[in-house]
């Protein structure tokens, strides 16, 4: 199948951008195709020439957002790895917290996306037809960032004490807790976002050890 034309890609992108805004305001169940089209400035015909249903748009939005976040982390890793390898000796907890904060710092405000992702997960739990697609995108995302995180940890002179596929969900839970606190406006919560670097650094020191220098 040929790649979609630039115009078609632009239409899809605008529909997906509009869907994020409408879903955030009205919820996944409350949002209608008509409201998404109105926000994007398109007709229903434009919508249905790109997506067969709101559910298909839902899965396309998941794919785009997960891929963007994986790409963002990969770019951060490429920037951070040489900096870490040039550091003399082992990183102190304070230094680790600073670099962790830089690595996990989102490119944009993630509060809206966290709310939507939570809704997406609930919708997938309720709809057996959507559950496989949700799991596929989520599993692909975690698999793609596992190697990235492991490479950054190695560049910092450490290695995981447990398989990286077990470590990633632990790190993700700390990240999600910070986003949840931000979404709830809990600015004084222990897991708040401005303390994310410290919290993840503490966890990393608990589940990693110093690597042996190459012989």
TrEMBL record:
PROSITE patterns documented for this protein: HTH_TETR_2 (PS50977)
Name of this protein: TetR family transcriptional regulator
Gene Ontology molecular function: DNA-binding transcription factor activity; transcription cis-regulatory region binding
Key word Transcription regulation present: yes
Pfam family, one: TetR_N
InterPro entries (alphabetical): Homeodomain-like_sf (IPR009057), HTH-type_TetR-like_transc_reg (IPR050109), HTH_TetR (IPR001647)
Transmembrane stretches, start-end: none
DNA-binding region of this protein: 32-51
Domain of life, source organism: Bacteria
Keywords, sorted A to Z: DNA-binding, Transcription, Transcription regulation
Biological processes, Gene Ontology terms: negative regulation of DNA-templated transcription
Residue span, HTH tetR-type domain: 9-69
């Amino acid at each position: 199948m040929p790649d979609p034309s630039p115009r078609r890609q632009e239409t899809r992108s605008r529909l997906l951008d509009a869907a994020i805004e409408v879903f955030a305001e009205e919820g996944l169940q409350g949002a209608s195709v008509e409201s998404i089209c109105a926000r994007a400035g398109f007709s229903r015909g434009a919508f249905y020439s790109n997506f067969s249903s709101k559910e298909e748009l839902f899965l396309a939005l998941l794919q785009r957002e997960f891929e963007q976040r994986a790409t963002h982390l990969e770019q951060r890793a490429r920037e951070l790895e040489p900096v870490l390898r040039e550091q003399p000796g082992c990183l102190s907890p304070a230094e680790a917290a600073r670099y962790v904060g830089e690595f996990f710092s989102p490119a944009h405000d993630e509060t809206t996306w966290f709310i939507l992702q939570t809704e997406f997960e609930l919708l997938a739990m309720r709809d057996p037809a959507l559950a496989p697609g949700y799991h596929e995108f989520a599993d692909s995302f975690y698999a793609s960032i596992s190697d990235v995180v492991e490479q950054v940890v190695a560049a910092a002179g450490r290695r995981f004490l447990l398989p990286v596929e077990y470590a990633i969900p632990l790190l993700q839970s700390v990240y999600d807790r910070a986003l949840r606190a931000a979404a709830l406006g809990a600015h004084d919560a222990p897991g708040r976002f401005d303390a994310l670097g410290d919290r993840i650094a503490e966890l990393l020191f608990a589940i990693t050890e110093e690597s042996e220098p190459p012989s």
